[in-house]
């Protein structure tokens, strides 16, 4: 059965798909490292009470605190148990040259905390960033969440949960509780969307990552001990509905950490929820070798990603 989604293909292989098909990008339509500014944060801000509640602020040339620029909030990957706000995806950081502000988050990690605490942290961070728009030089109504791998999962979960109680910190101050955490769009790179399917993948650290994140028995490093009900209950695909923000989903064709199957599961659920026109899929099969695996940035269809960002910012894709 063909997949009914808008598909941005960075792939030469013959695949039968219906929907909007954008062909394999020429080299000039991919990102290059020369497009990624060497950026040091101008500030590090605290968005909550925990020591891990830190975010770095990267600003474009000629930025002023009084500006109202679009902002990308980046959530790093690392299997929910490692990683740093310094791990900013190159395709996200490259948006500095187009005038975007980029804010990269730390959040609390497993096994010190478990699901849904990292989601609550990202939810809190988005609210805080919006509350500080007057000093960060951003437009709070033009905020896009981005994430890589586990960070893609967290970003999409915040977008799709629509601030439901389990995903909002119970100690959120009233001034933040009054602010929306829902972004106008999401960019997910090599993300995880169905934890049940991910638990069956051959990635050697997958069981450990899921057991730690979901609070299941982790005494056996290689054994998946979370039950199906836990895995399903924490998966993005079961929360999707047609009111969710648009998503740009990029994934390496040969990703050996998060299997490409995740993309097709997501696209199938998007079709079921009648939101397939809002999920843009970019299967990366060109560009540098590493981009075909777990770090797809340099093979991403740059023109399509930037069209997506421009469309959600302008309100033409909602």
Please render the helix and strand layout as text.
Elements (H helix, E strand, L loop, with lengths): L2 E2 L2 E4 L6 E2 L2 E2 L20 E4 L7 E5 L10 E7 L14 H4 L7 E5 L11 H15 L1 H4 L1 E11 L1 H12 L12 H4 L7 E5 L5 H5 L6 H9 L13 H6 L13 E6 L8 H12 L6 E6 L17 H13 L4
Parallel strand pairs: 1-3, 2-4, 2-12, 7-8, 7-9, 9-10, 10-11, 11-12
Antiparallel strand pairs: 5-6, 6-8
Main sheet, how many strands, which sense, barrel? 10 strands, mixed
Separate helix tally: 10
Rounded to the nearest angstrom, the radius of gyration is 18 Å
SSE series: EEEEEEEHEHHEHHEHHHEHEH
Mean pLDDT: 90
**CATH fold label:** Rossmann fold
Roughly what fraction of the amino acids lie in strands?
15-25%
What best-fitting shape do the alpha-carbon axes yield?
globular
**If strands are numbered along the chain, what order do they take across the biggest sheet?**
4-2-12-11-10-9-7-8-6-5
Poorly predicted segments: 1-5, 9-22
Report, as a whole number of angstroms, the end-to-end distance: 27 Å
The SS-based structural class is: alpha/beta
